[in-house]
Amino acid sequence: MTATINVMSLGDLLQHLRGRARLTQTELAGLSTVSVRAIRNLELGLARNPRKETIRLLADALRLGGGRRAALFTAAGLPADDASFEALSVLPAVAAARPHGRDADLDRTVGLLRRTAGGIVTVAGLGGCGKTRLALAAAHTLQTGSGVPTLWMSVLRAAGSGAPAHHDGLQPAPAAWMAGLLAGAGGATAEAARLIGDRDVLLVIDGNDPADGDHVSRATMESLLGECPRLRVLETVRTARDREQDRTVLLGPLRDQDPAAGDGSASPALAVLLDRAAALRPGYRPDRDEAAALREISSLLDGVPRALESVGSWLLLCAPDELLQMARTEPLLLAAPPCDSPADSWAGRALRQAFAELTSNQRVLLARLAGWEGAWTVEQVAHHFGLGRASAAVAVQALLHQGLVRREPTDRRVAFRVLNLVRAACPTVRPHPSAIPADPAVIPAVPAVIPAVPSVFPAAPSVLPALPELFQRQEEHPHDSAEHRRNTRRFGTAAGVLRDRPRRDHAA
């Protein structure tokens, strides 16, 4: 039957497909908005050069896909690539909704993509922070506002790495097909370039992390951009290492609200939680006490979108006050849906992946900082641990880029805190909370020995050496240290700004 379809004339094929759909010419005209006269002329062979838009409308009305859609385009004298391209550039319906709390990130991403074609934009952040969701919203905005279609590729799914598929139908379908175009012959791009041609297209490469092995290399992307001058590329990665900082959108956790505020307003983090709860429990409306518990849960889970969506699954099984107790004592368990294995949850994988990107001294610093409650500054870190400001700034920036710490809203200073999920992964420090006082000179000492290292951080040393010794080489030989140069290249110019004045007395 396929061979027969491929040799049919346009009129015979259209009549065959219309009969297969059990539609009259009038019914097909109503579904496609193509006139009855135009359909009759096509079937009689009187229309010699039909417009591409006419064929597309008919194919959509007949619900054609794959080979039949390509056959109809070919019979009309149009390139079969047009049919394949249109089938691949369909985004899921969820892309039309703007993600909560991401207006500034979305506007910056779309702005970078609109500037000029032929560039690569990177969205980076900790696993579960909503990179895929932001990429979908950016693709939809670009498509509706500028008419730029999207080709979507998921490296994780195409590679078969065992990573779970995105939930809620966020993952567009043609991931494996697009991956095949880019993976053959060591990343050859001839087929992909032939398909895209001179079209104005956005290619999204989701989960393009080098650590996963089967990623699309920078050389492959640049080769494809060289052959397709109107192509734009948007990639999502866990770390922004070795990317151009001016074309990188660093995605952190959503803004959460202090439960002590008590004003009842829904923060972006709480809005994500409530949306998921409403999707699973239609008509669910929390009362005042339940809303207060959910606000505190969203804060304890650091505003990480995927963790908050997991809470919506737990709401099917437990009351909000029970979940609040879980958030206080076992936030990592609550951050994953009940169906996930606690030994290999997405949260544990995300933390392990972020931790693996740190150097040994940055891991030691993170383990120390995990014992501090409240916000702290780079100046306090440098003073308490005896580090130069340059080394402290680069190390804190590395933790920030991995999504393991977050900026805290303050009036007069730039402050940070370790995510509660990260602190939960270090159970030995949670029983010893200590708020950082205003005077860094009286910060209580953090225990130098951690007797048990959690499985999330398998490479962390059980005995923490003195931090100044680990950072000594960077302080004494900042220009000769390969690791210092690497960190400076990865994490921006903080070291360059502060390198020449590590010991000056000046206001923080």
Question: What would your notes on this structure say?
Answer:
- With 508 residues, the protein is of the alpha/beta class.
- 49% of the residues lie in helices and 7% in strands.
- It contains 26 helices and seven strands.
- It has helices spanning 2-6, 10-20, 25-32, 36-44, 52-61, 66-75, 80-88, 103-115, 131-146, 155-159, 175-187, 190-196, 218-227, 268-280, 288-300, 305-314, 320-329, 331-334, 346-356, 360-369, 378-385, 389-401, 420-424, 467-476, 482-491, 494-498, and strands at residues 120-125, 150-154, 201-206, 231-237, 248-251, 405-408, 415-418.
- A five-stranded parallel β-sheet has the order 2-3-4-1-5, with helices on both faces. A two-stranded antiparallel ribbon has the order 6-7.
- Helix 13 links the parallel strand 3 (201-206) and strand 4.
- Helix 6 packs antiparallel against helix 7 and helix 20 crosses helix 22 (389-401).
- The model is unreliable at 157-168, 258-264, 428-464 and 473-508 (pLDDT under 50).
List the helices and strands and how they pair.
Elements: H1 2-6, H2 10-20, H3 25-32, H4 36-44, H5 52-61, H6 66-75, H7 80-88, H8 103-115, E1 120-125, H9 131-146, E2 150-154, H10 155-159, H11 175-187, H12 190-196, E3 201-206, H13 218-227, E4 231-237, E5 248-251, H14 268-280, H15 288-300, H16 305-314, H17 320-329, H18 331-334, H19 346-356, H20 360-369, H21 378-385, H22 389-401, E6 405-408, E7 415-418, H23 420-424, H24 467-476, H25 482-491, H26 494-498
